[in-house]
């Protein structure tokens, strides 16, 4: 009997350590919010440009008016992919002013769109690395005006890369820039783990470089590529032009608490655009290059700053706020499994903090998720009718 008890207590303790946190997660409070998400870049049934946002809402207990978790397969606007990979979208749905009448948050995740050659990979479901005719995409003027009116009457708006870039035309871009309080310089960039990879570096990027510089693309190893439309391409290699911690995300000194739980000095690993503050937005975080002397010379030659806005907010008299994320923040190769237990988000954030190289997972857990958490909490506070935001 004593021997049985000696083994029973450790088993019970282990079961409690596993089951209690899991049970606490499933009985946590739910928050009802009306979140409107626009994503036009959905060529396949992967939903990569907004899936991590919806996963965050599920993990944080945000539910629809019906009390159900948000479903990344249907609870958004934009392009709806067909069941058969390679077919064009089964339908599309643009943002309309009516969608925002009761919205607690409008999130413009991506408007780049779906292109003909994206669909050629079929079952492989791989985006093309070469440009091709547009099937659907770009922010429309009606959509941009609806977003502007929404935030002017007190709404909470988040927009991120690539809502200002191609294929959005000048008129809606100017409207959205005015709304966000930023100006897009037309420069975009991205980190690549291997500049020689034909599976990662777009062909148009290589071709534009070779046309401008009149020499072949022979880069290898990790680095950053900056592009000014099809006119200019600049390559900053890790080592010769930038340090290993090449592009860093730094929180700015501010009384705004939106980023209070986001990691400071984290490395940014993906697509970004170079924007300027138009004068009526506050910069909450910046991208900061860590260049060598050679890298600094290349940035100066292109008229590119060593520090530029990463997260901005423009505040409106009616209480509205418009945030711009100058990076493809919501695009993350996140697994779709449910949160296994209460406290998992904190544990994962700590584990990802051990990484020393640019990592999409580390960025997601340490910067993006705390940022989204705070914005969703602010939306809930505003919905309840109490003061919030700062």
Which tags fit this structure?
390 residues, alpha/beta, ten-stranded mixed sheet, four-stranded antiparallel sheet, 18 strands, disordered C terminus
Chain-averaged pLDDT: 89
Let me know the number of strands: 18
Order of helices and strands: HEEHEEEEEEHEHEHEEEEEEHEEHH
Per the principal axes of the C-alpha atoms, what is the gross shape? Answer: globular
In DSSP terms, counting alpha (H) and pi (I) runs of 4 or more, how many helices?
A: 8
Radius of gyration using CA atoms only: 22 Å
Which sheet architecture does the biggest sheet show? Answer: 10 strands, mixed
Strand content: 15-25%
The helix/strand class is alpha/beta
* Intertermini distance: 61 Å
Largest beta sheet: strand ordering: 5-4-2-6-9-18-17-16-13-14
Question: Helix amount, in percent?
Answer: 25-40%
* Uncertain stretches: 11-27, 386-390
Describe the structure.
The protein has 390 residues and is an alpha/beta fold. The chain has helices at residues 2-26, 51-59, 141-152, 170-180, 203-213, 293-302, 344-352, 360-384; strands at 31-32, 35-39, 62-63, 77-80, 91-93, 105-110, 114-115, 134-136, 156-160, 182-192, 223-228, 232-237, 242-251, 266-267, 272-277, 282-291, 307-315, 321-325. It has a ten-stranded mixed beta sheet with strand order 5-4-2-6-9-18-17-16-13-14, with helices on both faces. The termini are far apart. Residues 11-27 and 386-390 have low confidence and may be disordered.
Please outline the helices and strands.
Blueprint: H1 2-26, E1 31-32, E2 35-39, H2 51-59, E3 62-63, E4 77-80, E5 91-93, E6 105-110, E7 114-115, E8 134-136, H3 141-152, E9 156-160, H4 170-180, E10 182-192, H5 203-213, E11 223-228, E12 232-237, E13 242-251, E14 266-267, E15 272-277, E16 282-291, H6 293-302, E17 307-315, E18 321-325, H7 344-352, H8 360-384
Helix pairs in contact: 2-8, 3-4, 7-8
């Amino acid at each position: 009997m004593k021997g049985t008890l000696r083994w029973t207590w450790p088993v019970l303790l282990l079961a409690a350590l596993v089951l209690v946190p899991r049970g606490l997660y499933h009985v946590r409070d739910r928050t009802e919010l009306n979140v409107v998400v626009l994503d036009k870049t959905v060529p396949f049934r992967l939903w990569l440009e907004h899936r991590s946002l919806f996963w965050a809402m599920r993990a944080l207990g945000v539910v629809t008016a019906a009390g159900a978790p948000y479903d990344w397969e249907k609870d958004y606007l934009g392009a709806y992919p067909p069941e058969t990979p390679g077919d064009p979208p089964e339908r599309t749905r643009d943002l309309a002013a009516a969608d925002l009448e009761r919205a607690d948050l409008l999130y413009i995740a991506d408007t780049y769109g779906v292109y003909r050659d994206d669909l050629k990979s079929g079952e492989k479901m791989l985006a093309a690395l070469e440009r091709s005719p547009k099937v659907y995409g770009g922010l429309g003027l009606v959509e941009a005006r609806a977003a502007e009116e929404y935030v002017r009457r007190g709404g909470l708006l988040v927009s991120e890369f690539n809502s200002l870039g191609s294929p959005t035309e000048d008129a809606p871009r100017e409207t959205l820039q005015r709304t966000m309080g930023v100006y897009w310089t037309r420069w975009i960039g991205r980190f690549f783990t291997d500049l020689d990879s034909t599976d990662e570096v777009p062909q148009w990027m290589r071709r534009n470089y070779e046309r401008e510089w009149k020499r072949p693309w022979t880069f290898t190893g990790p680095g950053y590529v900056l592009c000014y439309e099809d006119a200019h391409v600049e390559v900053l290699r890790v080592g010769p032009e930038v340090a290993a911690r090449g592009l860093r995300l730094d929180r700015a000194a501010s009384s705004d608490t939106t980023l209070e739980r986001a990691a400071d000095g984290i490395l940014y690993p993906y697509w970004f655009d170079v924007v300027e503050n138009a004068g009526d937005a506050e910069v909450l975080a910046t991208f900061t290059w860590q260049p060598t002397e050679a890298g600094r010379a290349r940035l100066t030659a292109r008229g590119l700053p060593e520090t530029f806005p990463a997260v901005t907010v423009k505040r409106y008299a009616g209480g509205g706020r418009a945030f711009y994320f100058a990076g493809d923040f919501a695009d993350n190769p996140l697994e779709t499994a449910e949160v296994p237990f209460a406290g998992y988000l904190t544990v994962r954030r700590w584990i990802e903090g051990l990484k020393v190289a640019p990592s999409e997972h580390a960025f997601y857990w340490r910067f993006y998720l705390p940022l989204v958490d705070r914005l969703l909490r602010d939306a809930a506070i505003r919905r309840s009718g109490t003061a919030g935001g700062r």
